[in-house]
Here is the input.
Amino acid sequence: MAGRLYTKSHEWLTVDGKSATIGITDFAQSQLGDVVFLELPNAGRKLEAGESFGVVESVKAASDLYAPVSGRVAAVNDKLAGKPELINSDPYGDGWILKLDLSGEAPKDLMDEDAYKKFTETGA
Amino acid sequence: MTMSARNLTASTPLRTPLYKRHVALGGRMVDFGGWVLPQQYTSIRDEHFAVRKVAGLFDISHMGRFKVIGDGSLEFLQSLLTNDLSRIGPGRAQYNLICNEGGGILDDLVVYWGEEDFTVVVNAANREQDLEWMRTHAPRAVEIEDRTFELALIAFQGPSAEELMPADHLDDLPYFGFRPGVVAGVEALISRTGYTGEDGFEIFVSADQVERVWDAILEKGAQSGVLPAGLGARDATRLEAALRLYGNDMDTTVNPYEAGLGWTVRLEKGAFMGRDALAKIKTDGAKRTLVGLQTAAGDIARHGASVSSHGRAVGSVTSGTHSFFLGHPIALAMVEVASLRVGETAAVDVRGREASAEVVQLPFYRGSARSAAAPAKS
Here is the structure.
């Protein structure tokens, strides 16, 4: 599995062959505060890279989620319905959001960990 | 994901004397009313529960604090504020409003009647504007001094606050009473007031000693579950208690009767700023009123969301959040008078769709505050 990649809109993804796992970053969850609800697509939905696919509601605000890559929703993390706080406690593990079956190539503007870290420090 | 611009600080916000403590405790610092304060330290949920079950400690040093000094201070305050200070006396505090000539609310505040002068605590975002307004209207003999930067202010709130305060003889301090005292060896002014619906204290202490008091309260309460609490827990607890937030639930376009604060307007006390307009509004009847809404899990109605009844728009949400303690979202909404009654179902906009909302009795939650039903009516 390749390393974790990041978007400017604070999603992360890992790619394993033609499958990608998507979540929001630790920086994002820490900025949002306690997550209380997620509105997510059903399995089977087709997403284009950059398309809004759902909403994360924290105590503070509702924020749109954007697909980092194009693909079809293969799985949605069912645990989040009952335990949205997994986004806060384990954003890169049990707090994953979607699995996508990839269609096409990943966009070139995704960042690696160092680049993302720099991005959040210099004015995300 | 789009990040809230509120996290990003364009101009340098002010720091309270507890800034280093907040950072050391892992506080997530955000800009609030021109000040950098912790949104939360660990989790809003945990901090919220600490306040409701045991006690939480808040830094509220961002709030504006003025001394009103000189002959005629009482008469001056009576002429500017809506409530009647003659109903209290030295050692008592009173919830109050400043209105403009038209009866619009300029700010809400608490007035502390001290032995030698009055202390006024106002909203952080309105501090400079209030100061100018008060100075403009004050007679020559009355001085308004801004003490915001010399005095720190912290709030220790929760059902166990009295038991866990590192101070003696608090049992006889009445709700909305205050007096000088010693907290953790430091001289302070201790007030039985708050903004959470719980019993508790607000402690005025000099800025250079506040860390000592802060540390002592957290240390003494640690085993019992006391937590430092941030803005998130403060907003959730105040909203559950249906305590209004200036800038959200009221502003200059709202009058006290609409905000449900008619009890702070004492028309019979004599002339005061806004009295004629307020007397007319009272006679004619307010056109709008604040109501409480409860929605299903996930349906958080945010400030500005439109509210409708039977397909007709009747108003909008002024404050809304998810209440971890009650287990569902809650909101205050400013709506046409008599358009929504307790028990009825309204529709509210949530992320662009209509969600069902039940109109419920206020407050959403009644905490341990000794007289939460009628704050400041001392």
Notes: Helices of chain B lie at 19-24, 44-53, 73-80, 127-137, 161-164, 210-221, 231-240, 275-284. Residues 210-221 of chain B form the longest helix (12 residues). Chain B has three domains: 5-60+149-240, 64-146, 287-360. Chain B touches chain A through 24 residues (CB under 8 Å).
